[in-house]
C-alpha cells in the first residue's frame, strides 16, 4: 500500500480513474506519463492528480493562453500549437514559445501538413505529438518528418484506430482518449495505448456537487 499524504484544504482533489494505472506509460524527457487531463481550466489543472495536462482547445493557439496555463500548472504540459486552420509559420512560432515556457512537448491537430511538422522539428528540441482521428491516416510521412508520439482521438472508433496503429508500429508511443467509463479506458489500453487522456467533470458539475453538500450541511444546522 502506498502512503498518501494530503492537507485539510486539498482533500477535494479530482482523481483520474484508477484503471489508467494499467497503462505502461510513456517516458517523455525523463518523466513517466500515464494519465493526461484534457483541460485548459486552470483551477482544475491545479487540483487533479493527473501526470500531465493536454492543453489543446478549439481556437487559434495564443501565447497569452499558453502562458497562463504554464504559470499555473504544477504538472507537465503537452501544449497545443495548432495544425488545423493554424499551421506553417504560426505553428512553428508557437512551438518555440511553448518550449521557452517549459512545455514537455507540443501537440498538432489531425489536418497538419507534413511541411508544418518539418518546420516545427527544425526549431524545437522537445517531442512532437500528432493527433490522429482516422485509421486511414498514413503516418509514415509524419513520422519521417519528426512526429514522436501519436494522440489518437477517434471518439467511438478510438479503440479500433489504436489497434490499427499498434499493428503497424509496434514501438510507437500512443496516447488515446479513454472514453467515459473504466471499461472504455481498459479497452484502449488493451488495444495498445501507452497513456490515456481523461476528460474530467466540468467546473459546473464539480460545483454542483459541492453546493449540494453545502446546502445539506446548512439544513442540518437549521434542524
Automatic annotation (TrEMBL):
Alphabetized InterPro entries for the sequence: Aldolase_TIM
Name of this chain's protein: Hydrolase
Organism annotation: Loigolactobacillus bifermentans DSM 20003
